[in-house]
Amino acid sequence: MARVLPRITSPIRRRCLLMVGLALFFVSGCSQQQGNDIVSQFREGRPQEFLQTSVDRMATLAMRDNLDSLYVLMSKLYLRNPEELKKSGFLNARTAGKQVRMAIEQQQPLPTLGGKKDLAALRYAMSPEFLGDRVGAFIYAIGSMLVTAHGNRLEFYMTDAINPTFVSNAARNIEIATWILSQRQTKQGEPLLFSNEISEEGSNLSFAVEFGKIVARLDLLTQMLDERYRRIGLNYAQSLLFLNFLPVQ
């Protein structure tokens, strides 16, 4: 004779059914949400992103954000140093900044720097001998230095190689440039460029903060690049240890 199972009491039965229903609801909802997120990401992405690893994509975004930070700093410097804008020959900071931005991103020389780029341009722009628009020259010099440190590219793909040492050196150069900006003075004892300010009226450290963001992005990218190349070495060592052949296609 078949054994009759005890009937679940009504409150317990309802509670069990409710828990099962909630579980199914959340599972189906998460799956649907993940599916929608994937579709949305494919729709919003560009075709060339399929040729980028996660580190390549990160390097591309970091370069974009670092240049944007430089352009923010340029606008701030023009506001604090209106005499430099007059030297540029342009009527407003927006037009002057556009010329500097084009020179950086198209890797063209800035006429006032006599064809100098990256570190040579930076030394000249922050020297007492330079008589041109020091704001535009200073930002251009740092921007071209960043592009040079990244292999003269603004976007990165699987076929590109970025030297982490050069990226780390660029971060240190930014720190030196920040110090020069705050300390170097004219013969009259005034800063070559007015930037950060700490006085009885108040403090303005927005320049140091923005430069700090650039340094942080560069240092993070350096760590990511070091880890990627370290993993390549580890994978090779593991293949030798376990006698695994390396893929050739």
TrEMBL record:
Lineage, highest ranks first: Bacteria, Pseudomonadati, Pseudomonadota, Gammaproteobacteria, Pseudomonadales
Protein name: Lipoprotein
Keywords recorded for this protein, A-Z: Signal
Signal sequence bounds: 1-33
